[in-house]
Design a protein that fits this description.
transmembrane; 71 residues; membrane; mainly alpha; transmembrane helix; 3 helices
Length: 71
């Protein structure tokens, strides 16, 4: 025997599994778009983001050929 849901809980809890999946998918899509928008806009608004994205290597390993080897 299940207790009927009433009041505020009835307006929050979805009545079908399809509705619940749609709500979760919508929230995840919203979060994903917000993260992508943040990553796209942050370098335009902050100098430190631009410096970090355009950083030069400081003596670490390089993929460039540094010796005069023949091809």
């Amino acid at each position: 025997m299940t207790a009927p849901i009433g009041g505020l809980a009835a307006s929050i809890v979805p009545s079908s599994p399809t509705g619940a999946i749609a709500i979760v998918a919508s929230v995840m899509l919203t979060i994903t778009v917000a993260v992508f928008a943040f990553l796209a806009i942050a370098p335009l608004l902050s100098e430190t983001w631009t410096e970090q994205l355009n950083a030069t290597p400081n003596g670490g390993p390089s993929i460039e050929q540094t010796t005069n080897e023949a091809d």
